[in-house]
Design goal:
Blueprint: E1 2-3, E2 8-14, E3 17-22, E4 25-30, H1 36-41, H2 46-66, H3 76-91, H4 96-108, H5 117-143, E5 148-154, H6 160-168, E6 173-179, E7 200-201, E8 204-205, H7 211-217, E9 220-225, E10 232-236, E11 246-251
């Protein structure tokens, strides 16, 4: 485990590194466990993937039948029984339409369904299509690339080199910052952090004003007069070096 000695600490995960805080100190280490790409492609996990797939398929089929249970009969106990029966049926490797029929028979024997056997039989093709659509949707969501998240804790004014690093080297992940430390009284958060500053993160609080708060306190009031119209006052949120509002007349 390596220690983070920079004035900018990190919390989160990027690539194969994990940044964390332990006993008041910031550390870094390589990720442990199996990453998603290896789990989905490594032949060593074929049985695990198959088992997980059967469990997901069983849950989908059970939910398609359980929706017909009358509201007064729905309960955690009945839902659990249906899931167990659905898993057992899927492990028997019987066709999915038969799984739906047997689940319906089980619930129908309890007299808790709002659909008759004949009507349910007619709905089986549409239920199978819905199950296939759900499985496809899960696959697409899995393939969607999600940026990893990391939070930087800045304890002193960042250098120009630090700023360049955050701007150009951090486009592949979603990052936020917390300004928690000792800063000069007149120090202002750089505008490049405007949309990434967190008020609080895991007990750490930003001790400086956000750029947007500073801008609100230093507004420019502009009076615009157009031909044939009355004088209108428009307040724009534009930062200025003056603390008081500046009035500017623009005549059109």
């Amino acid at each position: 485990m390596a220690r983070q000695n920079s004035s900018i600490k990190a919390l989160g995960r990027v690539d194969n590194l994990s940044f964390y805080r332990q006993e008041g100190s910031y550390r870094a280490r390589r990720k442990t466990g199996v990453d998603t790409k290896r789990y989905l492609n490594d032949p060593a996990y074929a049985n695990t993937r198959a088992s997980s797939g059967r469990f997901g398929r069983a849950s989908t089929l059970v939910s398609l039948v359980y929706r017909y249970v009358l509201p007064g009969f729905k309960s955690d106990t009945l839902s659990s029984l249906c899931k167990k029966k659905g898993m057992a049926l899927v492990h028997e490797r019987i066709p999915e339409e038969e799984v739906l029929r047997r689940l319906h028979e089980f619930l129908n024997s309890l007299h808790c369904l709002a659909i008759s056997p004949a009507d349910f039989e007619m709905s089986i093709p549409s239920l199978l299509r819905e199950a296939a659509a759900r499985a496809l949707s899960k696959t697409r969501r899995r393939k969607k690339e999600v940026k990893e998240k990391i939070t930087f804790i800045i304890s002193e004014p960042p250098t120009e080199e630090d700023k360049e690093l955050l701007i150009h080297e951090s486009r592949d992940f979603d990052w936020k910052v917390v300004f928690a430390g000792e800063f000069p009284e007149d120090y202002e958060i750089p505008i490049l952090f405007a949309r990434r500053v967190l008020d609080e993160f895991k007990g750490l609080k930003t001790v400086l004003k956000k750029p947007k708060d500073w801008i609100k306190e230093n507004k420019v009031q502009i009076e615009i007069q157009t031909p044939g119209s009355q004088l209108n006052n428009i307040v724009l949120s534009i930062p200025t070096e003056a603390n008081a509002n500046i009035e500017t007349r623009v005549q059109g």
